[in-house]
Predict the 3D structure of the following.
Amino acid sequence: MDGVEKRLTRIFRRDQKTVIVPMDHGVTLGPVEGLRDMNRTVNELLKANVDAFVIHKGIARTVNTGSAGLIVHLSASTKHSPDANRKVRVCSVLEALRLGADAVSVHINVGAPFEAEMLTKLGNVADECHTYELPLLAMMYPRGPSIQNEHDPDVVAHAARLGAELGADIVKTNYTGDVESFKQVVASCPVPLIIAGGPKAKTDHDILQMVYDANLAGCAGISIGRNVFQHKSPRNMARALIAIVHEGSTVDQAFRLVSERE
């Protein structure tokens, strides 16, 4: 077992699946609800036994992610930028290693005007990661003027495959909206594929149903942020998601966990 495999076991800690909570949104959106007190939110989610967190390097210096995997995010842009889809690199692989990272992540917007620049970054980071045997999570989103539907199965499959082709060990992308089409996306991606949560869902049931369906389609887990850390009970929502991904719970069984008293 090489270094990449050993570190992946800290993210896929049970049954080859993972529940990751990305909390890198403070760079993009600012200190929004759920991220104002990072220590408090992380501690609540550790009580639910989430598998890993995605955070930026500054937060990684001050927040203890406990037994969960630490994924340091290397990409950044803000909502104030004239081109928020242009993600730039703000951390090195070596700096992430010094912070104790179990993996790093990069964000690529496929179809954006600066796609070529971001793909170059992805290739370079993959090379550095494999030199140091550090896993790479590629967040591959169809997003830009040429993309008519960010959940279209063909463009989602292309984005996912692109991440794997350029060296990612895990790929995160959008759910396509139905089990059968997402099965094809999973089948065409040769590395573990996990789904994003997207914007804040209208109802808890909606997000649980999406996770259940994606799990049924064969995805390797989830990386869901706002629908967890902005929930009225982040711990309970995380527990519900874990129940679906790791324990095979139905949507109704998981939904009951959301409303339990802490």
Observations:
- Residues 142 and 150 are 5 Å apart (CA to CA).
- The chain has one domain: 3-258.
